[in-house]
Amino acid sequence: MSNTIHKSMSIAKPDAYHTSSTQKLFIGLGVTGLFILVLVLYNLDITSGYILALAISLIIIGIGGFSIDAYLNKIKGIKNDGVWFKSISSRGLMGWLTGVVLTLFYIVLYFYPELLGLAKDGDSNTGLIALFDPLSKLLSGNPASQWFVYGTLYTIAIIAFGFKFLLKYRHNRYQQLRTSSVMFFQLAFAFLIPEFMARLNSDSFSLPYYDLKNVWPLNYYNFEQYRVDSMISAGNIGLALLIFGIASIFIITPILTYKYGKRWYCSWVCGCGGLAETAGDPFRQLSSKKLSAWKIERWLVHTVLVFVVLMTTAVIHTYLGYDPNKYWLTKDVFLALVAMFLTLVFVLTMIFKRQELGKDAHYGAIGYFVLILALISIHYFSNSTHLFLFKAESLRASYGFFIGSIFSGVIGTGFYPILGNRVWCRFGCPMAAILGFQQRLFSKFRITTNGGQCISCGNCSTYCEMGIDVRAYAQKGENIVRSSCVGCGICSAVCPRGVLKLENDSMNGRINPNEILLGNDVDLMDLVNQK
After folding, report:
1. How far apart are CA 273 and CA 270, in angstroms?
2. Averaged in consecutive runs of 10 residues, what is the pLDDT profile of the chain (531 residues)?
3. 145 C-beta neighbours (distance < 10 Å), count
4. DSSP state at residue 390
5. pTM of the model
6. CA triplet 251, 254, 258: central angle to 5 degrees?
7. SS3 (DSSP) at 480
């Protein structure tokens, strides 16, 4: 029996928030693996495959051993013990230091890769990137780049922390399935398959790098001229990739979102979501639930979406021609098709879904008219080299810099310990905005609630990574149908009363904000049966 005096009045184990000796040992092993990678930055002559294997093994063993001791030796159930008492997960000193380190790493990775040892002008790699050369040559036959290093570390993080997540939520089958899914898609579709495709390249045949799980507008670069040319020149396989990219936008994505909601992508496939759900899991409670944050989220994410649609249209417009005798898809025809498609979506939404949109219909109208005016401006003020008054290449580079690098990388991941694990998904991801629009208006997915059993503990709202006040819906017995909801199911997993349930059902009665579930003015049994 311990003689340590604890001043806590809690009936739970007072020292439950402390790190055990076993956990400290495995933390030490993981830090040792990271330390080896840091040592290589100083160009020490230890850049061999064995050293890389040792460093990666220590990191994986460290995370895995920590996870086993932290969760496997406890009974199944909620394991968020003391999350607000830990410095790293409550915006304490360790949290801020972790955020600073991650942010600095992303800045160096994106803008100063030479500091990591990236070679220039045909020289050999050095430092950290040289350490990954053996693995890169094994998979693709090419020397490593900073993106290969990043992809490897990214995949290791999802696999290792995914194992931790599987142990933590081993009582919940849904969490087991979706976590296994994101681990698989990251390892196979985002990491291994693109590298194997590069190995197939030869002097007479070249396949473009293609992350099969990335869908426009995440792969905003996919319709630039050099990408389109490379896919066409790759023959039938390249043409199939191009057709797949287009089909994924207009056919595959809408169908899957209709059946399962945006969770099929954001929580089961997406690499950004995969990292947020695994490595970012300790920070999910830091997502702001304030009304002001929700307003900023709605404006910002849809502004990014409007900008992405405009930029993609403008980029394709720059390399199309004017002569209809050569190609039927001329600049003017393309702009007209885009305008017609946007008008069709806008009109159908206003006719059939105006009631469900409510006040958001005004914002949708604003976005629509902004896009139409922009298309007219492209017609009159753009040519093959300029978009509006700017050089096409400069505008594309600026978009890639601000959205693709700063927002999704530096802020999106570096700010996990400060703003929560879904900063990019909430405020900047255009894919999340498109899927959210589809989910809100014509998806079968919803989270149903049983208000009569809710005890208002607040677990659901606390651990909602998208900043949704789930408890407010649960207390009223309302279905939760929000554009931002990624269907992670954590709210349901941490609910001690089984109040929340993820469902795919008919569209009838899906959105019910005006129903009064308590009182004599509603036939409760009839209402429940209708659902």
Report:
1. 5
2. 53 60 90 87 67 89 91 77 82 90 87 84 81 88 88 93 92 92 92 83 67 79 74 77 85 91 92 90 90 87 82 75 68 82 82 71 71 72 63 62 67 84 88 88 88 85 91 88 90 89 81 54 60 54
3. 18
4. E
5. 0.84
6. 135
7. strand
